[in-house]
Amino acid sequence: MADIVPLHKEEPRGLVLREVSGNVLRLTLNNPPANTLSIAVMEALAGELDAVAKSDDIRVVILAASGALFSAGHDLKELTTHRADDDQGRAFFEKSVRLCADLMLKLNRLPQPVIAEIDGLATAAGLQLVASCDLAICTDSSTFCTPGVNIGLFCSTPMVAVSRAAHPKQAMEMLLTGETIDASTAKDFGLVNRIVPKQYLQQVVNKYAAVIASKSPQALRIGKRAFYGQAEMSITEAYDFATGVMVENMLKSDAKEGIDAVLGKRTPEWKAE
């Protein structure tokens, strides 16, 4: 297995660790003890996503975290220190929340599928991070919540991703009560795909990544973009849009190769775009 190396050489303890294995990139939040999404962490992760978006070699991204918590969301200590600013923190709050929103959009718009690997608590913007990934696999001891309402701060930006991943009334239940839900409930709500024992988490996630990475890179990129694009349309618009996407996809070299492979009873050989 490849060594995990820091994102930035000037940081002895990289805030985001990266490991490449074949066509799969594993990014690990490394901001203990709570993996809070400080400005530095979000900038580091955004930088990694910008870099991988340009890669033809990476086909799947895994987003994991070190330590006992997946992520506790925004760094409250960092936010609080700026209440002493002349504007009572407004400019810094705007910077932090906007950076977080832009990070979630990068995950959504990344050409490669992203799998969240969760072991522990994912709360507030940490849950927003999970909900913004394409797939989510967690341990049976993982927990999830949007607790902002408990401290007088409704989780409005996490709400955007959570309300698109979970059923509306169940998303609102989390947002209004601030209560923590277990892994089983999170799966019922639609926030995670699979629940596995802790000792098998990485093995299962790696298997999912390998299966997806074995597919046509052209089809993966086209499909992810189309999935989120049609979701914002009416059903009539969605079918018109998807029809055009399907035709363009059929004209791609991988589609020709895939169909020829089926007819020739052989394994397809995909080409990088």
Automatic annotation (TrEMBL):
Which keywords has UniProt assigned to this entry? Fatty acid metabolism, Lipid metabolism, Transit peptide
Tell me the protein family, please.
Belongs to the enoyl-CoA hydratase/isomerase family.
Query: What is this protein identified as?
Result: Enoyl-CoA hydratase domain-containing protein 3, mitochondrial
**Record's function text:** May play a role in fatty acid biosynthesis and insulin sensitivity.
> Pfam families in the record, alphabetically?
ECH_1
Under InterPro entries, the record lists:
ClpP/crotonase-like_dom_sf (IPR029045), Enoyl-CoA_hydra/iso (IPR001753), Enoyl-CoA_hydra_C (IPR014748), Mitochondrial_ECH-domain (IPR052377)
Q: Which Gene3D superfamilies match?
A: 2-enoyl-CoA Hydratase, Chain A, domain 1, Lyase 2-enoyl-coa Hydratase, Chain A, domain 2
The UniProt entry, under SUPFAM superfamilies, shows: ClpP/crotonase
Respond yes or no to whether keyword Hydrolase is given for this record. Answer: no
